[in-house]
Amino acid sequence: MLAYIISVVGIVAFSILRLIHNSSKPGVRDLPGPWLAKYTDLLRVYWAWKGDSWITFQRLKKEYGNAVRIGPNTIMLSEQGQFDKILGFKEDFVKSDAMKVWTPMQDGKPVGSIVSTRDRKVHANLKRPIAGIYSMSNAITFEPGVDDTIKYFLKRLDETFMTGSNAGKSCDIDNWVQYFAFDVVGEFTLSSRLGFLEKGLDIDGMLHDLNNEIAYRGLVQNMPVLDRWLRKNPIYTYLKSPTNKFVLRARSLIQARLSEVKHAGHPDFMDRFLEAQKQYPGIVSNEVLGQYVATNFLAGSDTTAVVMRTILYYTIRTPGVLAKVREELDNSGTTYPVPYKTAQHLPYLDALIREAMRIHFIASFLLERVVPASGYTLPNGIKLSQGTIVGMNPWTLNFDEEIWGPEPDSFKPDRWLKGESEETEIFEKRLAVMKHNDFSFSYGPRVCLGRHIATLEIWKVMPTMLGLLDMEFVHPEREWKVEGYFFARQSDMDMRLKWREGVNREFYIE
């Protein structure tokens, strides 16, 4: 009995001493923040669990300033100039242990992926065989397939919500843009759509599985030890399939492609991944090959769908915006689907899309990096020691009036354009500051690999929808719902759709 009491007292004493040690780390201890954040990361887990952590980040910035302690060893930075220094190429800040949560399991073992690996050299090594595949020059070769998917998207919207007995039927556009995004990923990866648009619903539980995966990882990445206790402990991996569902799907797709005599047509991403394996056998193992394919599906739909929802929501709800973008489209003489080459030269469309990505950043989590051995000195003079985690989220930067000008809380595409009486030199300086602080696709060596694919997709489908369709919210008096443990995902965007007056419907749905 005495031994038991001594053990319990010892554990309690050790825990208290550890809490005290955590709370008094040099550098971090000198920063303001919530009291509980000194002792535990559970506070961060709670913020994520609420599903609106970006709102908490904005509140913390207003309450405590540009450098806030949000965990025993974690601070949140919100000051202009810090993002590019920490995320950029010059400083040796690596990703934090939060990325270990995103390390997929294959056959009971963690396998480093291009997204989750923390080591910059390993990341560069994994990226090298496929970097060219994600270039804009390669992405543009898929434009005919994207056009076909856009036309099919319009056809399915027409027959489901705009024609015959379905005319005027409420369209859950928040789901349909994700169906479109998933099918485009299928077009790039496999040269075929996945069936989301055809069925108008989740296929094979992929969306359900994606949402569950992202919710779990978005929560536990705030306290990675939870993942070691929950999913990566030996008992769990013994009782449950240790291989990620998306990896299993990727394996199945790879085997299906290998069983073909020869894939005809334009080389898709699967073809290029298999080529990369032949060219770099020492890097692209079967496990890495599976990660390449799985990452396309995990990262390629949710992010793009968030941007498309934002564009539609603010364009329809903000007076004058729809009329301006339509005037630009009409005057351009564009065909539909809008060619990417045309979209590139439509300044108001570009401003609209940039403003949408600014006002509603995709992610609700912090971009975490670890202070290197050299340490890091904040603008206020406080020196952070090696191992301190610094986290940033553009939700705290994207509403800074010094960067974005007056009324940063408002959706104003014109902020990206030259004012009528504005001097060219002043505008160019102002625009340069905004672009320098635009982290929509992150920055530096870990910049979003699929940014060119997303750009091609968004700059084509959005002007096509805005130019051809009249859209109105079923409940214009209601705001959308936004929640997410990892992405700031929107819902409750039911719309009524019809063809714009003068549009030849038959031409686009044949």
Automatic annotation (TrEMBL):
4Fe-4S in keyword set: no
Keywords assigned: Heme, Iron, Metal-binding, Methyltransferase, Monooxygenase, Oxidoreductase, Transferase
Coiled coil: none
Membrane-spanning intervals of the chain: none
Binding sites annotated in the UniProt record for heme: C448
Signal peptide: none
InterPro entries with a match to the protein in the record: Cyt_P450 (IPR001128), Cyt_P450_CS (IPR017972), Cyt_P450_E_grp-I (IPR002401), Cyt_P450_sf (IPR036396), Cytochrome_P450_monoxygenase (IPR050121)
One Gene Ontology term of the molecular function aspect: oxidoreductase activity, acting on paired donors, with incorporation or reduction of molecular oxygen
Tagged with keyword Metal-binding: yes
Gene3D superfamilies: Cytochrome P450
BP term (GO), one: methylation
Co-factor(s): heme
Similarity-based family: Belongs to the cytochrome P450 family.
Protein name: Pisatin demethylase / cytochrome P450 monooxygenase
